[in-house]
Amino acid sequence: MIEFRSVSYAFEDVSVLEDVSLTIEDGEFGLLAGANGSGKTTLLRHCNGLLTPDSGEVLVDGTPVSDDLIAARSSVGMVFQHPRDQFVSATVGADVAFGPENLGLERAEIDRRVDAALEAVNMAGREDDRIDTLSGGEQSRVAIAGALAMDPSHLVLDEPFTGLDEPARRSVLERLAALSADGTGVLLATHDLRDVLTLADRVIAMRDGQVAADGSPDDALEDLAGLEVRVPDR
Amino acid sequence: MLTYEPDETLAHRLDPRSKLAVQIGFAATALAHPTPRALLVLSAVTVVVLAAARVSLRRTVIAYRYALVVLAIAPVLAGVTIGSPWFDRADALTSGLASYRVLLILLVSAAYVRSTPVRDSRAAIQRTIPGKPGQLLGIGIALVFRFLPVLQGDLRTIREAMAARLGTERGTIDRISTVGMLGLTRAFDRADRLSLALRARCFAWNPTLPPLAFSRLDYPVLAFALCLALSAFY
Amino acid sequence: MATERNSVELVDDDAVRSFARAAVLAALMGAAAVVGSIPIPLSPVPISLGVLVVYLMGLYLGPYWGTVSIGLYLTAGAIGIPVFANGTAGIGVLIGETGGYLWAYPLAVILIGLAVHGTDDLADPADTSTPVIAAVLLAALIVIYGLGTAWLGYVLELGAIEALQLAVVPFVPGDLLKIVAAIAIVKAGRIDPT
Ligand SMILES: Nc1ncnc2c1ncn2[C@@H]1O[C@H](COP(=O)(O)OP(=O)(O)O)[C@@H](O)[C@H]1O
Ligand SMILES: [Mg+2]
């Protein structure tokens, strides 16, 4: 469970999050929608302590993030917008192993997690492939595997479809749907809701650093009007 | 280009630390004894080392071609004198022998390069150098390996963009500083994104170390390296 | 599981950021060795951007992380990543005829880093006056030439003049242009070192 309690945050003097309160339940598939600059990225980076609130607090599984960064970062796996810049090794297997290695796990457990994570993103058996030979969609999926190897209860993704073509986008979405069906919570920030709305349990819409609407995907279509996000054609 | 190639040779099965020891022992004795007799023995050693790693002599010579030009010019430069006798054969010979030993050192190190994946070198570094320096170096070279092709791509893009915008007509200094500035800006952008990913995946000082172990084959090789190193003193 | 996690010692945030910059600049130096060269008029050797990146390491990473960066570059090349001139690699290059230049790089970075940043937190190099930067970069270049030539002369059994002819003279014009370019980059003030 990820809990925001009256979180406010500013870059220098510019207020970016204003009094945000939210609870993301385990196993939930949530969409964080909103125009560019509405504060989605800033909000997500509070979930695992990459940013610290100016006021208010963020809790993961009941513990304030700042009290146990390691627990928060293991429970909340994060995938960023540019997959190319988030790999730490030139080969797939070594990269996915990075998180569990940092947690100091036994080698056998690390190997098990790498296999399971690659399996979950449809990249089983590709350990020795070089990352720069992979397609954009494959890179995105390996980045997801890197987060999954930490064995998180939530997977948080920030605009993971940027720069992906349609088939690649679908391949990533299909994996997210499968993960969600297996019980991993997914929180996906995007300004393009076309084919993700049907997967979601909940849509959180942001405007100017505040939660403008929060509800089921059906209600969301009404609320999202005027938020400069791309919604499905009707 | 001279790089690691997967293979099953004797050298591929050795621990990187033994291969490192051989190179250092070899270089030490070659630097100490630039005599025809010693170089004859060392040439034989080089042939054995190259065969043990199945190094292609032709490709290695091509890879080191610029270095070889310097090695070839050196004895000529050493021999030429202003005034009689115009060419000092003794000086040229001394320099020629010295150049030849450098060639041997280069060839022996080519065997390491062809037979050792970055993963193994990284493991050797993290297991040999204790504490934080070992961890920084180990993860650091993995990052260099990962980002090298990415930044080569960046530099190519920058140069092509400059050429397209009549950049070829610019002054030389202008061009160097533009490439340098854009290259540095992009590199720092990538690094800043990378640092978020490192933090999200719990980048730690004390991770599980990559697996690596000496095999029975390594002991005679280490003993040989020791002999080479000791022979530098005789 | 909980007990294992308690022993994890996270690298602190500022160090992660500086380290990432150091590693990526080391890779940039390697990329410049293959892709970067720019032909210059009236010179037989094209300019490789390598030494420019050495300057930038000292100027923008400071003495501590700059040294880490150049150390990563040298180690990466030694273990076989093709980052040395023209995409070569191997310990042989560090011992071979151009090894002196490579070993001089860390000294150059420390010299530049100390002169511009001192031993405390990173400063903005744009705040250092142009003559001081020019003098420091020139001093760094002299260190590189000095060690480079000395080693080349020793390892190839050449006299000082011969070594200079082979290893310094052809490169002087390009290396001076790189100093001017580095100053231009710093004075443009568009890159934030912190
Ligand atoms: N590093 C930063 N420094 C200053 N302002 C920033 C920074 N990052 C984001 N902002 C500002 O914060 C606001 C929210 O940005 P962000 O969270 O990235 O929104 P989104 O992800 O929804 O596009 C924007 O107005 C943006 O300009
Ligand atoms: Mg964003």
Automatic annotation (TrEMBL), chain C:
TM helices/strands, residue ranges: 20-40, 47-66, 72-95, 102-119, 131-156
Family: Belongs to the BioY family.
Taxonomy, superkingdom: Archaea
Major localization listed first in the record, in broad terms: membrane
Topology term for the membrane: Multi-pass membrane protein
Gene Ontology terms, MF aspect: biotin transmembrane transporter activity
Keywords: Cell membrane, Membrane, Transmembrane, Transmembrane helix, Transport
Species per Swiss-Prot/TrEMBL record: Natrinema thermotolerans
A single GO cellular-component term on record: plasma membrane
UniProt-annotated location(s): Cell membrane
Protein name: Biotin transporter BioY
